[in-house]
Design goal:
Distance between the termini of chain B: 63 Å
Shape of chain A: globular
Distance between the termini of chain A: 32 Å
Radius of gyration of chain A: 25 Å
Largest interface: A-B, 32 and 28 residues
Radius of gyration of chain B: 20 Å
Oligomer: heterodimer
Strand order of the largest sheet of chain A: 3-2-1-4-7-6-8-5
Number of helices of chain A: 22
Structural class of chain A: alpha/beta
Helix content of chain A: 55-70%
Chain lengths: ~550, ~45
Amino acid sequence: MTALPAGRAGDPNPIDTATPAELRRRRLMIVLASAAVVLTAAAVVAALLPVARRSQYLAAVCVGLVFLGAVPLLASMIQFVAIGLNRFFIGYERLTPFYPRVAIIVPAWNEGHVIGATIERLLAMDYPPDRVRVYVVDDASTDATPDVVRAWAAREPRRVFHLRRERGGQGKAHTLNHGITRVLTESWAEALLIIDADVLYEASALRRMARHLSNPAVGAVMADIKEGSTEGNYLTRLIAYEYITAQAAARRAQNVFGVMACLAGGAQLHSRENLEAIGGRIDTSTLAEDTVTTFRTQLAGKRVVFEGNAVVWAEEPADLVGLWKQRLRWARGNVQISLQFSNMWLHGRRFGRLGGALFALIWFSVLLMPLFSAAASAGLLGLYVLDTTAAWRAFRMLWIFHAIVFVFVTAMSFALDPATARRAWLQGLLFPGVVSLAIILYSIAPGLLGAPLTALVERAGIAMTPSRIENLQVFVYVWVTAATAVAYAARWMAGRWRLQVVPQVLMLLAGYGALLSAVTVAAYVSEIQGAGLAWDKTIKTGKVSVRR
Amino acid sequence: MNGPRDWDRVFHDDLAADAAVERRLLIKELLIAAVVIGLVVLREAML
């Protein structure tokens, strides 16, 4: 893999410095203008066509919309196909033994119940002991955090340091900057490891990351974060499976493509040179500071590497409300970054692979997932009105492709991380949701599912009349969009109802992707409304362990 | 950690193990791709 080209003097800075109000206005302008242009153009073309050809034209538009609905599937497939090529692109052949002096920055706000164990584990890592220092940045904690860290600093005065911020609550980026500034004022550190207070590093994780910095083209390295809750439930196992797909798989593919979307917040190692080159501080203007750091590193001409064999364990939210809060923060951050780096997209000549079409496909297949789903449903409904046979054919094509992607992605995920797959195999199989899974099965083999289902319904005394079959068809056409609404309803109920069974059942029906899609819609709304940038910390209990 | 570590050797051992993991991953991927393609072909043949 080659490094991104270094920025040239005089290159325009892709980072937009508009004020929040200007950004909001621009957001609205972009959304409204784009929608208006597309709709007007479509209407003008339809009006200009002879009546006889109008339905053909509309059918072609609908087919195009259905194809748009397949974009996230295509992006997923491309990434999963690339996984196996990681061995040729990760750059092992260019590495030499290298154990830099590493300053570990641990942001901590009221982490009294976990911080002691975290420090102990960091000091016990299998890494030259005189080459690790732990800097705990205590963000004005009001619990036992300062006492615990001071006790460790007294016991290990050359290895553990307590940095106290008297004014806290501004967010993780501000806390990190306090520690980074202190570390960079001293000459000791050759690399900085940024972590979360509750993550557990496997003994070999740091050295497996650090070796990549022996290659001067590499600016930052991230480890593979795995879900490690000791008291896991259905949701944490879903996240555990999701992390195989989103971290272990997707990041390997991004190694292959030579462009990384985001360094994990809890496991990112930077060379000192890299952090200084990007300004010596973490961005504080968005909710996705890790992504900004990742982009800036690559725009400065350095590679970002994912090391899947360096493993870090983290506790993830065990309830829907906590997960929603965490993911809404991430999704809003991604929307903000898409706008902040608006000059970069599809400008590969100037911004290297970050500005390339492939990276845009990967990035926007997630960011615009609700719109792609809506496009598929709109296209199928439009075709249904124009030509029911064409609609059915388009639907079958879309879902057979979905089936192929599902089988390949699931099998590869299980192969990638068999240990996680053993405890989360059911969540892996049900990841798309029960309804989508049924549609996938029906698309592959209509006879296998269709006949028994019809018999079951008729045994219940409901005749499968042609009108009911048509209603069922319409239902499956709109399901990809309806699933988002169902997932949103699950979140709404989870926040208000004491009984959690109903939201859990709705989640099971809608699937995890629908939940992420609903979060993304909520992020659009929050950003258009210009909601505040309060940094809500995800609540952790410290019940996490290294699961191997 | 007991006794001095030979960190050069640790580096080479890690690298050999990790390269093997990535090699196996490619083999697994090729097998899975072959199975998926086989299933698609089988389905088309049966319809």
